[in-house]
Amino acid sequence: xxxxxxxxxxxxxxVLPLKTRISLFFINTASDATRRRDGTVNRRLLHFFDNFSxxxxxxxxxxxxxxxxxxxxxxxxxxxxxxxxxxxxxxxxSDSQLLPLIVFFHGGGxxxxxxxxKAYDAVCRRFARKSPAVVVSVNYRLAPEHRYPAQYDxxxxxxxxxxxxxxxLPENADLSRCFLAGDSAGANIAHHVTTRACExxxxxxxxxxxxxxxxxFGGEERTESELELAELDAIVSIQRTDWMxxxxxxxGGGMDRDHEVINVSGPKAADISELxxxxxxxxxxxxxxxKDWQKKYYEWLKKSGKExxxxxxxxMIHAFYVFPELEESxxxxxxxxxxxxxxxxxxx
Length: 348
Description:
By secondary structure, the chain is α/β, with parallel strands linked by helices. Helix content is about 30%, strand content about 20%. It has nine helices and eight strands. Helix 4 (about 150-165) crosses helix 5 (about 185-200).
């Protein structure tokens, strides 16, 4: 895969199709309307929005070349995942037809969304079909009802569940070619689950790549991009991210935004230099207020001696990949496919 740099666009603001702008309006309206000043979320109102067909059920019959099923891991904490299997690979049996496994964590600021939301169902279908790969999309517990480290615990427990119950996946799913992936808050989770996995032992799973799409990191300081894009970012704002970090952090625990799980490359950063940390693809967009934190993450990985690739989309916004009408959304799928193929080619 190519490594792209030079993310600063000469455009003063993102140029987006009308369809995308309308979608963003409704996304921001729903997000702002359901966040309460007392730090809680109006889940009842969110369920009302579900009446507008925002979710889609699993479908064991192939749709867009992919069949899906929902698998319960721990019903007591609503931990489950949606399994995406390319239909053309179902009869595969030989080694040459083995498919890599992608374990995906959705975004939403640790507070919103789920694998059965249409946008994420569609994104994971594209990953499954285009890579091609078997995809597991994790439904983890949400803040503020469930705060740190619940999301990381859920992500790691799904890995352990898959490793212990190999037969839950298709026979041609190759667990020795496993990728963790996520976007925004999901990319934050994917990083920390990867770190925990590097410190653990698995029977079947071997993580060979991390796909970090516009990861949600932060810190006490305000970065240049957070300030410069305050009035231009179509989704992210300091007000929203501060609220989400407060919802994520346990109250009264002395935790702030410079904690190692938030400011991963900051002064309290964990030392991963001795870990067998996998190659990482970091995706950054020019009109994403979080881009400075994401670039610091990429630079920190390199300084830690890890293989890392920076892929930038100068004219794009946060979460651009969930809008299929954007050309860059398709480009990202292609870049991801190249990264997966490159890492898989190293496996003997």
